Amino acid sequence: MDFLGLDTGDIEFAGWRVRISGGKGDVRDSEGFVVAEFSVNSMEQITLLSGDGKFADLALIALRSYVRYGVTCQS
Question: What's this model's pTM, rounded to 2 decimal places?
Fold first, then answer.
């Protein structure tokens, strides 16, 4: 799978919103504020660029759930 070309839209996960597009992504809180930014490489590895380390794990789980189930937010 091409993780660098992936465009997920908003993924609602554990009360947070994760968005991945073009090899980069962010995690937002319920009010829409960015709490972490990260990059995704071609091997599905997350590198945290800013924010707390727990958000890298959250982003990886959200990414894997999206790839497996294809679930995003219902707006």
Answer: 0.84
How far is it, in rounded angstroms, from Cα 53 to Cα 51? Answer: 7
Q: Could you report the per-residue pLDDT of 6-22, keeping only the tens digit for each?
A: 888 898 888 899 999 98
The residue whose two tokens read 């009360």 is: 15
Q: Which helix (H) or strand (E) holds 49?
A: strand 46-50
Q: Which helix (H) or strand (E) holds 8?
A: strand 7-13
Whether residue 26 contacts residue 38, with contact meaning beta carbons closer than 8 Å, is answered with: yes
Distances, alpha carbon 39 to alpha carbons 31, 60, 63, 75, in Å:
22, 11, 12, 25
